[in-house]
Structures are given as C-alpha cells and as structure tokens.
Design brief:
This protein is an alpha/beta fold and 452 residues long. It contains 14 helices and 18 strands. The strands form four sheets. It has a six-stranded mixed beta sheet with strand order 1-5-4-2-3-6, sandwiched between helices. The chain has a five-stranded mixed beta sheet with strand order 8-7-9-10-11, sandwiched between helices. Strands 13-12-14-15 form a four-stranded mixed beta sheet, sandwiched between helices. A hairpin with a 5-residue loop joins β17 and β18. The radius of gyration is 22 Å and the shape is globular.
C-alpha cells in the first residue's frame, strides 16, 4: 500500500481530526492509517491480533468505520465493531477484551461535519507521542500487507453497551441508589444516547433524557456540554434536582444545579478532590489539571492542603502526569475528568456519578455542592485563523503578548495557545482587576485577529 510522504504532524493533541471527506478525514487516509496502525501493533505473524472500533453518531462515521476496518483486515488484524459508544468505553473494552489496539471515531464536541480518529494502546490508555510518530512514519511509506490466508475477520458485537453500563454502575458507592432524584441527562445526540440514561435509570433515578435522538447531523447541535442551555431549560421546566450535560463522545461533562446554574470542570474537580482527600482516596495528595484551570481552584485546593500540578492543555497530558506522579484524579476546566481508579481517559458519565454520590451521601442540593470555590475573574477568547497562517509567529502578536505579560506580572495570568483540534488561537486571561482583565484580553485578541 503506497502513499505520498506526509508531514509528521498527522496527529494533533487528541488523535486526528478534520472536516469529513477532506484530508485527513477521508476514507483513503483512514484505510492507509489503519494499515499503518495494524502493522505497528501486529508485530508478528501469529494469529489472534485484535482491534476494537467504536464511534459516535456522525453520518461520516459509517465511511470512516468501513475504511478503518479494511485497513486493519489487510494487515491481518481481526476487527470487533462496537457501534455507537462513549470514548471511555472504547478504552475500557480495549483493555478488557485483550485487544492490541482500540479506535474511537469521533470529533468529540465539534459539529457533525467534522470527524476524528483516536487510538488506544492495549492498556486502554491513549497512545504516546512516540507511538503516534512511528505510525505516521509507516503511514508515509509502504505498508507490508499480510498474505491472503492471513487477512483478518470482522464482526459486530451487541454486548459492548451492556459491559460499559455495568462498569459505570460499579463506580457508584456500594449499596447507594438515586431513588428520589430527578435527573436531566443531555447526551448531545452523541455516543452516550443509550448508555447514560440506562445507567441512571438502573441506579434508581427519575430520568429526563434530552439529546437522545441522533440522526447523523445533530450531534452537539444546540445540546450537550458545549451548548448547555437546553439542559438548563429542562432542569427548570421539570423541577429536576440536577442536570448532567455530556459532549458528543461523552468524555466531558458540565453540571447544572436545581437553580439552572452551570458548573464547569474546575468546580467538579474541586468537589471530588476535597471529598477524596477527606476519605483518604486521593492518591499523591494532589490534583492534576491544565494551565487553563482557574486560579481560584488552585487557591482553594491549597487552603485544603491539596496540591495542584499543571500540564499543557489536553487530557492525554493530564493522564501522562497522573501516571508518572502516581495521582488518581485529574482533568480540565472544559469538563474532561479523569479518575484512573475507574477509567483510562476522561469520562463524563462517571464524573457525573461522583457528583450524584456526593448529593446522596451528604443529602445536600446540587447548588450547595457545585460552588466549591470562588473563581478568579477569567476571560477566554477564541480567534479563528485561516489555513496556512501562523499568527503566533507574527512580530506584532509577540509584542502584544510580551506587553500583556508585563502588565499582568504579579496580578494575573495569560495563557495563549493554538487549538489542537480547530483553527483557533485561544486567549485566556485571569486577573482580579476586571479593568485590567478586559483590556489585556481585548488587546491580545485584537492583535491575533489583525495577524490572521
């Protein structure tokens, strides 16, 4: 299988992502990529090598799924198709089914016209940078195909959802139930549209499910963790005790209290870290979060004797730091919550169950638990740029950033980064002085805009 040489940047911060039917998210690329990954993971000619493939509910998932299947089969890998299922379930099933590799077809919180491919290693964790680079090197050259008699077989299993449902329920405190709680669950018309309502119902909750009618085009459209107003309306309309919003592949969460107020990942991490520290479950005495997490979270944790270790943006970097440091809790402000005692990657449903457990065990309202700390004023601006542009390399932008950092010295923080999943420059500013906050955010964002 031959292809042209490609750059060594096929993989982004969370797998490969792009517009469906446009490079790199084409059937041809998916087929070649799967062949390269199959060759990488099938290092010998022995039989029994296996890949599990899950997906969310995008129409383009059918195309990518079939292309990946063909690529893996051509290198002698057997393929197990899981169908629509949350990303964390793929990590879990990769490990529990003794697969050589797992694949999730998803563009997470992006709109339906995008899609992506995430890989999981045999241990259920996302691939290292080194492994991704080796796969890229194979992708860029000839991939040795297997002999005709060694071509793999594919089959679809129906038990994947049931396995994940049972695993999710097992994370809830033994002997506890959700009886008497009315829960709105927003599945973003995505991968958890069957699993999340089922878990909550089996645990005894009265479930109001929205975002559970996927049609291939409505994933994340006006619903889910990136568009939580639909769930806010549902909570208020039904008098629910809590709302839980997941994104398209269910690896992130937003919490809505009974008053309709939205709590982000920082508040949820603060709650879980505090509870686990008191019960002796928080390993390493610290939480791992990214540079985007609010300064208020850091101050709160410090007041509780809990440390905070910051990483680059991306749940894979959070997980790497957790594994290296022996920590069992980490995540991102955006709602990726990683609890390594239960999952190998962010899992929005499991994080929601932790919040519900706190409600059950404390008999407190969601609003009393969702405001753990007072956040430091923060502004996040997203500036879209054209393909081929590199605004952060422009002298005027670098000068604006330097001036902003000088003005914030000792008064706040400035974090600027290029998104790994979209053509965006993200500008985050924190400062107690809101005049300074707004001025810095506007000046830097405008400088980036002018350079695009």
């Amino acid at each position: 299988m031959r292809g042209n040489l490609v750059t060594r940047h096929l993989f982004g911060t969370d797998g490969i992502r792009g517009t469906a039917n446009t490079y790199p998210m084409t059937a041809e690329t998916a087929l070649r990529l799967a062949a390269a990954a199959g060759r990488f993971f099938r290092r010998d000619a022995s039989p029994g090598h296996r890949v599990v493939i899950g997906k969310d509910t995008r129409r383009s998932g059918y195309m990518i799924e079939n292309a990946l299947t063909a690529g893996f089969l051509s290198t002698g890998m057997d393929v197990v198709l899981l169908g629509p299922i949350p990303t964390p379930a793929v990590g879990m099933l990769t490990h529990s089914m003794r697969a050589d590799v797992g694949v999730m077809i998803t563009a997470s919180h992006n709109p339906h016209h995008d899609n992506g491919i995430k890989f999981f290693a045999p241990d259920g964790y996302k691939l290292s940078d080194a492994a991704e680079m080796e796969i890229e090197a194979l992708f860029a050259n000839d991939v040795e195909l297997c002999l005709p008699e060694n071509i793999g077989r594919a089959n679809r299993i129906e038990s994947a959802i049931g396995r994940y449902v049972e695993a999710a329920k097992a994370t809830f405190p033994t002997g506890k139930r959700l009886d008497g709680l009315k829960v709105v669950i927003d599945c973003a018309n995505g991968a958890a549209y069957r699993t999340a309502p089922e878990v909550l119902w089996e645990l005894g909750a009265e479930v109001i499910a929205i975002g559970v009618q996927p049609n291939g085009y409505n994933i994340n459209k006006g619903v889910g963790s990136t568009a939580p107003n639909a769930a806010v309306d549902a909570v208020l309309q039904h008098g629910a005790d809590i709302g839980i919003c997941l994104d398209g592949d269910a690896d992130r969460i937003a919490i809505i209290d009974e008053k309709g107020q939205i709590a982000d990942g920082d508040q949820l991490m603060g709650l879980i870290a505090t509870r686990w520290a008191k019960s002796g479950e928080l390993r390493g005495g610290a939480l791992v979060a990214t540079v985007m997490s609010n300064l208020g979270l850091e101050r709160w944790l410090g007041s509780q004797g809990i440390g905070l270790h910051r990483t680059n943006v991306g749940d894979r970097y959070v997980v790497d730091a957790m594994r290296q440091g022996g920590f069992n809790l980490g995540g991102e402000q955006s709602g990726h919550i990683v609890m390594s005692d239960y999952a190998t990657t962010g899992d929005g449903l499991l994080a929601g169950l932790q919040f519900l457990a706190a409600m059950v065990e404390s008999s407190r309202l969601a609003s009393e638990l969702a405001n753990v700390f007072s956040p430091c004023p923060q502004i996040l601006k997203n500036v879209r740029f054209s393909e081929g542009k590199a605004p952060l390399e422009v002298a005027s932008v670098q000068s604006a950033i330097q001036d902003a950092e000088t003005s914030l010295l000792g008064k706040g923080r400035l974090v600027i980064r290029k998104s790994g999943t979209e053509p965006l420059i993200r500008v985050m500013v924190e400062a107690e002085d809101e005049t300074l906050l707004n001025a810095v955010a506007e000046t830097v964002s405008q400088a980036v805009q002018d350079a695009t």
